[in-house]
Amino acid sequence: MSETTLHPRTIRWEGDIDGHVVLIDQTRLPHEELDLPVEDPETMIDAIVRLAVRGAPAIGVAGAYGVCLATRGLEELPAVRDALTRALPLLRDARPTAVNLATMVDRMETLLRERSERPGMTGMELRRELLAEARRIHEEDADLCRRIGEAGAPLVAEGASVLTHCNAGALATAGSGTALSVLFEAWARGTRFQVFADETRPLLQGARLTSWELARAGIPVTVICDNAAAHLMARGEITQVITGADRIAANGDAANKIGTYGVAAVAARHAIPFHVAAPSTTFDLETPTGDRIPIEERSPDEVWGAVGGGPPPEGVRFRNPAFDVTPAALVAGWVTEHGVLQPPFAALR
Ligand code: MRU
Predict the structure, then answer these.
(1) Whose CA is nearest to atom 6 of ligand 1?
(2) CA distance 233 to 57
(3) 130 and 215 co-located in one domain
(4) Strand partners, 31
(5) CA-to-CA distance for 201 and 207, rounded, in angstroms?
(6) What domain range is 287 assigned to?
(7) 148 lines ligand 1 (CB under 6 A)
(8) 114 C-alpha vs ligand 1 centroid, how far in Å?
(9) pLDDT tens digits, 80-128
(10) pLDDT-flagged residues of the chain (< 50)
């Protein structure tokens, strides 16, 4: 399979300056492969909040295109500027934990500021520049994924049983993924291994998305309940772990989907190497340690929603933190486009 058919196209811009975004609606996968057209920033914010598009790098690209959508149909510079002033903070804050979203929206804002000050700049010219920048962010992300795969592929041992949590694949990026890019590249190089995918409660990104991506690439994958991982580790059935990340602090503490910390802690208990794969765009070197990373709390309805059926028993409360922080001490190495790094991440500074 070629690279383009191997991986789904998570996000694309269709048309020219007045074009729009098309997402794969990830809430419908794997049962339906449905295109979701997005023509304005409000719909993009809604798609990000509902996880129709999700994963740290993918929401960074979605945020950048969302900025372009805010100026659709506008021609005069003041109107373009006003629309952006309204849309930028809303896009930036759509989800708090993955640093990629804020970083990419800020990058668009920086370009806006620089270019608006240029003498003779027109609204249309500014819009063209913004779309070109969003396209660059998109292409750069695909390249970062490819390089992460190359850097991490040698970590996957022949005959390994690799556990992953959530979805850090093509669907979470604009390329081949982060943790899954490592697996795709190792497989392409002829290493043979199997993958265990944690189902990833409550929204089942592992059961729905990771299993789908690996199966369509021909990589053997077995979905397990999140709470089966420790048991399989204790029995020697998992030999290594690799996950993605949403934000990595300067000391290496890594925020990722809720449940990752538990996986890392049990892996350490059984001396199983635990690697985090992420592009430099997911490192937040301004944040010294993981306890300073904002953790998204999502609707408690998602917790009971996975149970289905009627309402919960009277008086029962729910809590739904969407991410946790794995302490750096539990991480064997951070796989980036610059190789497998260790804190203080000199290559990223
Ligand atoms: O809530 P989600 O599905 O956006 O969470 C995604 C994750 O936790 C991924 O592991 C992370 O973004 C890395 S994606 C390459």
Answers:
(1) 55
(2) 29
(3) no
(4) none
(5) 9
(6) 153-348
(7) no
(8) 32
(9) 999 999 999 999 999 999 999 999 999 999 999 999 989 999 999 999 9
(10) 1-2, 4
Same structural domain, 333 and 270: yes
Which ligand 1 atom is at minimum distance from the Cα of 169? 15
Judge if 76 and 163 occupy the same domain: no
CATH number of the domain residue 46 falls in? 1.20.120.420
Atom nearest to 244 CA in ligand 1:
13
Ligand 1: which atom is nearest the Cα of residue 323? 8
Q: Please give the tally of structural domains in the chain.
A: 2
Report the alpha-carbon angle 186-281-251, nearest 5. Answer: 90
Whether ligand 1 lies within 6 angstroms of the CB of 256 is answered as yes
Looking at the fold, whether 159 and 139 belong to one and the same domain comes out as: no
For residue 197, list its beta bridge partners: 164, 223
Cα distance between residue 63 and residue 73, in whole Å: 19
Q: Are 155 and 343 in contact (CB under 8 A)?
A: no
Task: For ligand 1, say whether the CB of 287 is within 6 Å of any of its atoms.
Answer: no
Go through 66-91 and write b for each residue having 16 or more CB atoms within 10 A of its CB, e for each that does not. bbbbbbeebeebeebbebbeebbeeb
CA distance 76 to 20: 20
Asked if 36 and 97 sit in the same domain, the reply is yes
Q: How many CB atoms lie within 10 A of CB 107?
A: 19
Question: What is the pLDDT at residue 74?
Answer: 97
Q: Which of 246, 253, 284, 324 is catalytic?
A: 246
pLDDT at 78: 96
Q: Is the CB of 244 under 6 A from ligand 1?
A: yes
- Ligand 1 center to residue 245 CA distance, Å? 7
At residue 24, the pLDDT reads 98
Clarify whether residues 142 and 166 are in a common domain: no
Q: Which of 124, 147, 170 is the last residue of a domain?
A: 147
Q: Are residues 179 and 224 in the same domain?
A: yes
Tell me, yes or no, if 93 is annotated catalytic. no
Please report the DSSP string for 261-276 in residue order: HHHHHHHHHTT--EEE
Q: Supply the DSSP symbol for 34.
A: -
**121 and 232, same domain (yes or no):** no
pLDDT number for residue 3: 52
| Residue having the nearest C-alpha atom to atom 8 of ligand 1 | 257
